[in-house]
Please model this.
Amino acid sequence: MRFSLKKGVQFITKGQTNKLFSRHKLNKIYSKLCLKKIVKKSCFSLVEDYSILPYLPQSSIRLQVKISHSKFLKNKIKVPMFEFLSPSNLFVLLNKLSKSIKTIIIPLIIISLVFSLFLSPQDFIQGNSVRIMYVHVPSSWIALACFSLIGFLTILNFLFKIKNALIVYKSLAPIGLIFCLISLVTGSIWGQPTWGTFWAWDARLSSMLVLFLLYIIFICSYKFIKDQNLSSKICAGISVLGITNLFIVKYSVDLWSTLHQPSSVQILGKTSIHKSMLLPLSLMLLVFLLYCALIFLMKYRTEIIRMKRKSLKRL
Amino acid sequence: MLSKKTKNRSLIFFLSSILLIISVFLSLKVLEDNVLYFLSPTEIKEKQNLNLNKQIRIGGMVKKESIFVNNDEIKFIVTDLKNEIIVIYKGTVPNLFAEGKGVIAEGMLQDKNYFVAKRILAKHDENYMPPKKQVK
Model:
């Protein structure tokens, strides 16, 4: 029997648990044990245990070896230490991180809402309706940033078949979709009092709608296509389209005449938002980013568990 | 360093993505008339084959001290600081409609200097500031 498991298995001798071996190492141990006739092949049995699932690396499984403890110890097989960034360790780390985000996010939300809804001044033309900006602008930024990240990871996954990138973009896509929707909805709510219309088919608004549709197609293409290869190909295609669309979204207000105003905040160059309004905007961005991180971590862990479950079933 | 499969994949990927990007830009180039949300008075003046029966949008700044209100009819001049168009409109205007601010009018041209609007949209700029600073 060879272990065709991808990364590792847990090797359990009587009384000893939680030692992780790589596949290579395990094969070595196995052959060593078999050569010395300590164990027979039939002594190895696979035990499915879902309770420890999150703490195991990809495609791992518990292995029970029916040998006596003393005999096993005589051979003095060295057990490798936990790698710092092994998925199981990462899992625990992510748990801690999401807990710490959870503790700070509620006070931050309250502070930034107070700043943006009460303490910040009105605009000199728009009055109170400028406060929609504090939701609209950060959520559109996040929607754009999310897609650029997704596009990058999809292409990375397509070219080099990196499994981790796949999990990351799968957990990023719904966040981007939601923030894109928020940006569209708040934008049209903002448009009514300022422009006098909910929707106009100008370049910025239409390209944002296209981005929203691309998000939906992207999510559908990995949700409903079972074939992994095909879905990653389609995702790569969509993300190339999406990245071109991102440039159109970004530069539409500069290239063509649009109803939407040009961007106020520029990384290079001056911002045309007054300082007293920039503070709640950046606070709101921080809160949104933290929220994104929280949802992302939760999604990421779910995806890891889902993947492991799949591979367990395959065994 | 890269395996042959990866090289093949990346070659196919880059070629197809370049083709895709070029096709997107070409289609945008073709559709440029539709991408433009409004025309400025100068663009209307320079345009040769102008269809007067088609609904279009014009945009620019409302000229200072040009707004005339007569019952429910409003008359103002849209300018881009070079050329001007007189606009007539019946109905309510958005809150941000004011002198010296951006405006977009949707309707039909009577001739090159006269525009009958069916809808008025206000276009606001990218400046945000509290009211006190504006006074200074």
About this structure: Residues 126 and 132 of chain B are 18 Å apart (CA to CA). Chain B touches chain A through 43 residues (CB under 8 Å).
